[in-house]
Specification:
283 residues; alpha+beta; Thiol Ester Dehydrase, Chain A; 10-stranded antiparallel beta sheet; 10 strands; 30% strand
Length: 283
C-alpha cells in the first residue's frame, strides 16, 4: 500500500493505561466458540520512534545502530492487543499465555517512512488434550515492501491433565554458556517502561498475586531480547531471525543462563529448569 493511502488507516494504538485496562477487564463471550473466522486488522505507524529504539538497544546492550529484530515485537504487540480487543475475538485477554514467537527482518525502512502493520488472527484446532490456542501473524511493510514479520502463539485454554505432554529434558549435555544475568525486583518495571507492557504479573509481588501468580515473573520477550543481544555480542554479528518457545516462567530475583547449542540453537535456563528454547540466525 503506498504511503499516500495510509492516511485512511487508523494509527497503531499506544500501549497506554486505557487500552491495558480494557484488556484486563475484557470478559469472554458466552458460550465460547470452538472456531471463528480469521480476524484481520491494519494500522499505520507514521515514523519510527528512534529515541525509543535507542533506549531499547542501550537497555539490552545491543551494539551498533541497527534496529534489533526483537524490537519489532513492540510494534506487533500493540497490534496484537488492539486486534484481540475487537468484539470478534470472544475470549478474555487476561490470562493468555505467550507460548511461541518468531521474528524476522525482511528489509529496511527509513525513519520517516510510514509502516503498514497488518495482523491476521487465527484460532488453531484444539489439541488432543483440549487445549485451545490462537496465532497472530503480523507483517510490517513500507511502500508495499516487507520490513518485518512476527508470529506469536498464545494459549487461550489449557487442556486436561490426561492429554499427552511432550517430554522436556531437565539437563543438557552439550552447549557453552554465552551469558549469565540476575533479575532484580525492578526488572519487570524497567522493561514495562520500554515496551508499554504493564501486565501486573511482571511488576510487584502483590500485583502478581492479584492475578493469581505466586510471584512476579519477567516478560518472556525480555528474556528473548537479552538472549538476542548476548548472541550478537558473542558472534559479533546481527540477528535477522529469531524464534523461540517459552517453556517455563522466569521469576524476578532469579539467575538466568544463556547456552549456545549446536548450529543456531540456544537454550535459556533458570533455577536448573529450561525456560526458553530457540533458534537465532545471525549475519
Amino acid at each position: 500500500m503506498p504511503a499516500s493511502s495510509l492516511a485512511h488507516v487508523p494509527a497503531l494504538p499506544a500501549m497506554g493505561p486505557a487500552i491495558l485496562l480494557r484488556a484486563l477487564f475484557k470478559r469472554p463471550r458466552r458460550p465460547l466458540p470452538s472456531a471463528l473466522p480469521e480476524i484481520v486488522s491494519e494500522y499505520r505507524l507514521d515514523s519510527l520512534p528512534l529515541d525509543d529504539i535507542a533506549r531499547y538497544r542501550a537497555a539490552f546492550g545491543f551494539a551498533g545502530e541497527h534496529i534489533p529484530v526483537t524490537w519489532w515485537y513492540l510494534l506487533a504487540q500493540r497490534a496484537h492487543l488492539a486486534t484481540m480487543l475487537q468484539p470478534a475475538f470472544p475470549f478474555k485477554i487476561a490470562g493468555l499465555v505467550h507460548m511461541e514467537n518468531a521474528l524476522e527482518e525482511h528489509g529496511r525502512a527509513t525513519p520517516d517512512q510510514p509502516l503498514l502493520i497488518r495482523t491476521v488472527l487465527r484460532l488453531l484446532p484444539p489439541s488432543s488434550s483440549g487445549a485451545l490456542r490462537c496465532v497472530l501473524e503480523t507483517t510490517g511493510s513500507a511502500d508495499g515492501t516487507p520490513v518485518f514479520s512476527c508470529s506469536s502463539t498464545y494459549l487461550i485454554r489449557r487442556g486436561t491433565s490426561g492429554g499427552a505432554k511432550p517430554s522436556e529434558p531437565d539437563s543438557l549435555p552439550f552447549g557453552s554458556q554465552v551469558a549469565h544475568w540476575t533479575l532484580d525486583s525492578a526488572a519487570g518495571r524497567r522493561y514495562a517502561r520500554l515496551s508499554g507492557d504493564w501486565n501486573p504479573i511482571h511488576l510487584y509481588g502483590w500485583s502478581a498475586r492479584l492475578m493469581g501468580m505466586r510471584a512476579p515473573i519477567i516478560h518472556g520477550m525480555h528474556t528473548l531480547a537479552a538472549s538476542c543481544a548476548a548472541l550478537e555480542r558473542e558472534r559479533n554479528a546481527r540477528a535477522t531471525r529469531i524464534t523461540c518457545r517459552f517453556q517455563a516462567p522466569v521469576s524476578l530475583g532469579s539467575s538466568v543462563a544463556l547456552l549456545a547449542m549446536q548450529g543456531e540453537e540456544f537454550v535459556v535456563k533458570s533455577r536448573d529448569k529450561i525456560a526458553v528454547t530457540g533458534n537465532c540466525m545471525l549475519l
